[in-house]
Amino acid sequence: MERGREAGRLEALAEMSNAEPTQQWTSAVRVLGGEPDLRELDPAKFYEGIETLGLKDELEGWHFDKKVFEEVVAKAKPRVIIEVGTWKGAGAIRMANLAPNARVYCVDIWRDEESIERQKSPLAPTLYKQFLHNMVRVGLEKRVVPVALTSSHAFRMLRNKKVTADLIYIDADHDFRSAYSDISMWWQLLNRGGVMFGDDANQAGVAGAVLRFISEEALPCRFAENQHWVIEKP
Ligand SMILES: C[S@@+](CC[C@H](N)C(=O)[O-])C[C@H]1O[C@@H](n2cnc3c(N)ncnc32)[C@H](O)[C@@H]1O
Fold this sequence. Notes:
Layout: H1 3-16, H2 21-32, H3 68-76, E1 80-84, H4 90-98, E2 103-107, H5 116-120, H6 127-137, E3 144-147, H7 151-160, E4 165-170, H8 176-187, E5 190-198, H9 204-217, E6 222-224, E7 228-232
Parallel strand pairs: 1-2, 1-4, 2-3, 4-5
Antiparallel strand pairs: 5-7, 6-7
Bound molecules: S-adenosylmethionine.
């Protein structure tokens, strides 16, 4: 990066440290160029030019083919879905296909951490671009909104935008603290009668987080196919 621009960024970041926390965040994403354009929450804005990159199809994922997806969609009849932890979008595609009228917000930081090789080449597709490509390939670019922020920042932004959901899928970090924080935070955006579910209930961190949450809220939880947990909001 040229020196003038770098110095400008550093100056702007230094100024931020005197600002209020929310201002700090807004300025940080502006300076670092990381905030997705959600002003109009218009999915079309995110996919411009992605087809011209000529990326290959690459769509693996975890447990997205399970029957529980059909069950939760049938129960929640979602018009709005939020997926926290999306990766290449396999789960998002499954939910969007099962709920053809729903808008889906996909929250992920899309770090390319799974492969050093992918990061080495400046021409390598980033995970984020791969996700966008995948959505275009299956014709979901009008209904799937990427939210390229950490879970907690995405939560604050969507809450500020008054977004609520009928179905929320939690599948981001799986350690106890992150899973518990995701469940209790995103629960606030779940509509009454809605369903929250998540993957990897067979992992200790996730299981502990789910058990703590349901015992605090005195809610029943169903475990499905040895992997998924499902909680309905009364
Ligand atoms: C197991 S993968 C998600 C798989 C996806 N649900 C599917 O069906 O294929 C977990 C994803 O969570 C994302 N993630 C982990 N911690 C996160 C956080 N704090 N905020 C946002 N995304 C996070 C990772 O970047 C990763 O892409």
